[in-house]
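User: Fold this; tokens only.

Assistant: Input:
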Amino acid sequence: MPEMEASKSNCELFSPPSDVRGMTKLDRTAFKKTVTIPVLKVRKEIANRLLRSLKRAALQRPGIKRVIEDPEDEECRLIMLDPYKILTHDSFEKAELSILSQLNVNPQISKYNLELTYENFKSEEILGAVLPEGQHVISGFSRVGHIVHLNLRDHQLPFKHLIGQVMIDKNPGITSAVNKVNNIDNTYRNFEMEVLSGEENMMTKVRENNYIYEFDFSKVYWNPRLSTEHSRITDLLKSGDVLFDVFAGVGPFTIPAAKKNCTVFANDLNPESHKWLLHNCKLNKVGQKVKVFNLDGKEFLQGPVKEELQQQLERSEERNPSIHIVMNLPAKAIEFLSAFRSLLDGQPCSSELLPRVHCYSFSKDVNPVEDVRRRAGAALGVSLEVRSSVHLVRNVAPNKVMLCITFQIPAAVLYKNQTISLENDEEPPVKRQKTDNGFLEEKTETAPDT
């Protein structure tokens, strides 16, 4: 087919000049290049109308006009065509030839020498030409307000400042590029970063799911890839429910829950996260609906959470809210589950009132679902085989996934002086279903939330 032939013969056409290979300091002037492309000569009064009918065939390159003046005839215009798709007039599709005939346009193709500059190349083309041949090129990044956050590999580090500048140049609104230089700190969930290019201002504002968050990105944890997960949990909540957000960060679970008129208790050990959590609650006008704490997760569970749970469950006859506990610290959250063991005094509440936990974890296991179930069950001292569902949140790295295990805390775990049955003899039957991500979810049949 003509397009396939064109692709083979022009594969280098829009590649930057070969002599930029190995460049470590960005020289934009080195990217100048002249290429010969096909053009179609048309009367100027029909040029824009015809362009709409030739979307498939028209050239689409950054910063290049698809209709230009004809240097030899001021009454005509030249429509730039894609050399990968149009070799001769025979490359036009039937519908396109029909339009040309209707408008009395000669389909004969002419050639035009087009000068390309740095502005006309895409970021992946520039980096692919600069980095060592055959090496991985930047394919994804996180955007946090005006900041682009990269996680460069070792072979990319000699080019880090050039990469940062290219990312700023090619992404409108980005004014700073940073690279993570160590793993997330398990205590405060932030990481050391290096500014590669642009301004050093890490104070940023982001909008997620119609809520606004402001924070210093260098001092708190924020991951834009969790937007869907924040919504998924929020969608489980109803007005009047209670949410305990154990590792709240700057508020991406807390604020949407408060907006749904839930009672929210939010905690984070990081003083900076605590500060911005308070700020964002006020910014989103939910300051009166959220109680904010600056405690270790275990202290929060065994203090404010215990006290409020005891009160909520004792007055369950008057009102019947669902109680949710979110634990989004995937590197360590499962370790905190042991805090629920014998947490409450008195007679157990009815099973449908028991708190529902959403606990996040990483796994590198060949069977991550069973791995998370096993570790969470071990922390609680009870099998979760038929008491839980597991949701795949995202692939973090090759052979590493982030998951969320959801379960109601068994009364025998939550209350003191109760006998724990490891056999799950009295558990309701299990409903199994395949998730979209290929994981097997196991869900117990329980009374619906009211």
